[in-house]
Design brief:
The chain is α+β, with helices and mostly antiparallel strands. It contains 15 helices and 35 strands. The strands form seven sheets. An eight-stranded parallel β-barrel has the order 15-16-19-23-24-25-26-27. An eight-stranded antiparallel β-sheet has the order 28-29-30-35-32-33-34-31. Helix 5 (278-292) runs parallel beside helix 6 (328-340), helix 8 (393-409) packs parallel to helix 10 (446-462) and helix 14 (556-572) packs parallel to helix 15. The relative contact order is 0.07.
Length: 735
Amino acid sequence: MKKPLNSAEEKKTGDITKAEIEAIKSGLHSNPFALLGVHETPEGFSARCFIPGAEEVSVLTLDGNFVGELKRLDPDGFFEGRIDLSKRQPVRYRACRDDAEWAVTDPYSFGPVLGPMDDYFVREGSHLRLFDKMGAHPLKLEGVEGFHFAVWAPNARRVSVVGDFNNWDGRRHVMRFRKDTGIWEIFAPDVYAGCAYKFEILGANGELLPLKADPYARRGELRPKNASVTTPELTQKWEDQAHREHWAQVDQRRQPISIYEVHAGSWQRREDGTFLSWDELAAQLIPYCTDMGFTHIEFLPITEHPYDPSWGYQTTGLYAPTARFGDPEGFARFVNGAHKVGIGILLDWVPAHFPTDEHGLRWFDGTALYEHADPRQGFHPDWNTAIYNFGRVEVMSYLINNALYWAEKFHLDGLRVDAVASMLYLDYSRKEGEWIPNEYGGRENLESVRFLQKMNSLVYGTHPGVMTIAEESTSWPKVSQPVHEGGLGFGFKWNMGFMHDTLSYFSREPVHRKFHHQELTFGLLYAFTENFVLPLSHDEVVHGKGSLIAKMSGDDWQKFANLRSYYGFMWGYPGKKLLFMGQEFAQWSEWSEKGSLDWNLRQYPMHEGMRRLVRDLNLTYRSKAALHARDCEPEGFRWLVVDDHENSVFAWLRTAPGEKPVAVICNLTPVYRENYYVPLPQAGRWREILNTDAEIYGGSGKGNGGRVQAVDAGGDIGAMLVLPPLATIMLEPEN
C-alpha cells in the first residue's frame, strides 16, 4: 500500500496537485481538511469536494442560495471551483448523475468541536466529561444537525468514520487529527440517530486495520453484528430524588444491604425462549425483589459483549447497555422504576481486562494502545484476554470516565468491580519468569493501585450516594479503607473467605462437623478488618459446582434443612448479604445462561418454603437495626456460645446503640435438643422472631412456642432453649 500523503509533503503546481487528488481518492491523505471544504484565496472563496459517482456539483448555502458551480477535476468525483460567499461558512453540495440528484452537506467546511481546554485536561488526565466529548454525540453546529465523532488513535496515519450514512466508504469522512492529544474528530452533518458506524484506521505503517467499534459508543448492534450505533443523548425523566438523597446522606455501612444478584438474560424469558426487554423485566423483577425484601439488584455485566456464554464479562462496549434487552432508554427506565420503590441497582464492572475480538480495543490503532505490548503485562492467561495499561493516562481516563458515566447518566447506585485480585498482582496466575516486577522489584501492580484509588476517590467525591464493591480474594490490606488512609478506597469488599469456609462446613456430614468447628468461627477473627459483603454468588453455582441446595449434605430433607439453617446463619452474621438468583427457592440444577430459572419448582412446598424464608430473613434483617447497623464494626458482635464443638452449636449476639439486641442460635446437627442453656444479656422474656425449622418454611415445626424466659441465676443470665434440628433461630427481648 502507498504511503499516506500529507498535504504539506508535496509542493503545489497550481491550486492542487494530481498527487493530492489521488491521495484523497484512495483515502491516503492524512489531512483532507487542508484541501477539501471552503477556503479563502486572494481572489475570494473556493470550494473542493470529493463525491464519488457525481458528474456535476453545484454549491449552495445552508439556506439554499446558489453560490457556484464546481469543475470536475477527476472522473472519480473530485471537484473544485470558486464560489460567491461574503464570509467563510458551511455549504451544501447538490450532486447530479444522469437523472439522479442528491445533497451532501460538506463536513470539511465545519471547524473543530473540541477545544484547547479539552486538549489540556485530556493530556493532564483530569478530564471528567470525556463521555460527553468522545464517541458519537448528536450536535447542531452552525445551524446543521448531525453527529460529532471523536476517537483516540494517536499512532494512526489516518482515521475515518464509516457507516450507513456514507456507504462505509473510508474516503468520505476522514477525521481531523489533534496532534497534542492523539484524538481524531469530525462533525458529520445530516447523520441521524440509529446509524451503524465504525472507525476505519490506517495503522502506523499505513496498513488497513480491521474496522473498529467505537470505544465510547453508547449503543451497539445486537450480536452477531458488532458495529456501534448513533444514538440520541439520554432523555429520562428521573423520579428518584428521594432514593438518591437517602443514600447520599446515610452511612452505607450502617444501612441494611441485601443484594439479589441477577443475570438479566436468564432470570426469566419469554415463552419462545427470547430475552425479556428492560420494560418486561421491570414489570416482573422489580415487584419480585420488592416483595422479597431485597434492597439492591446487582446485574452481571450488561455492557455490550459479543458472546452470550461470557455472561458479559468479556465486554467490547463499556459505555453501551447491551442491545439484547433493548435501547439504553429502556435500561434507564428500569433504574428509575427500581428507585421509585427504593431498590438500588448495582452493576458488575470489568476494568481488569478486555477480549481480543478484532473489532474491539486490541491493537486499536495498529499499536498496543489500551493494553501493554509485552504479553507478560498485557495478556491474561486465565481468560485469554488483554489487560489494560493502567499506567497510561488516557486508558485510566477512559475507565474512570466510564465509572462516572454510569453513575451520572443512568443513576447507578454502585459498581461491583470484577477480578480486583488479578489487577493488584503482577504475578497473578503466572509462573516465575512470566511477569515483570514493579519499579521496586515487587509483585504489586502499583499502576493498578493508583488507578483504583483515583477511581474510587472520584466516584465517591462526585457521587456520594454511590458505592463501589471489590471482588478481591486475597489478603491485600485496606481494600475498603479510604485512600487518604492508605486504602484502595472501595466502600465494600466481597468476603470470599466466608463463602469458602461456610460452604465447606455445610457440605460436610453433620457427624463430622465437630472436627471442623473452626470453619465457622475463624471468620470472626477478620470479619471487621474490611467492610464486607457476604457473597453466595453466581461463581458458586456454575462450572460443575452445582447449586447451593445440591452442595448441602444429607438426604433431601437434610439438604433443605441445612440450606435453611445456612441462610439463617448468614443473615445473622455480620456483613451485607448477596444471593444469586434461583438460590432463594433452592433451584436444584446448576445455573445456565441458556434458559430461564426453574420457576416451576415454586409449586412444591419445600422450594416455596425456602423462598418464604429468604423473604422473612430479608424483612427481619431490615427491620432489626441490631442485625445491620453494626455489620462492619466489632462492637456489634459478641459470642454467646463459641466452643461447643461436640454439639455443633453456635450462638452470638448482634447489637446496635439504642436498639434491642438479637441473639442468633444455630444447631447444625439433625439432633433435636431440649433444655440447651444459652447465656443472654438480660433477664426476662425473649421473643422468637425467626425459626428456620418452622413448618411454613418446610421444617419440622420444632421450637420454643414463640417465647423463652431468661433468668438471672446469681449473676449468670441465660435461658433454657429448645434447639430444632439443623436450624437457626433468632431471639429478641420483649422489653
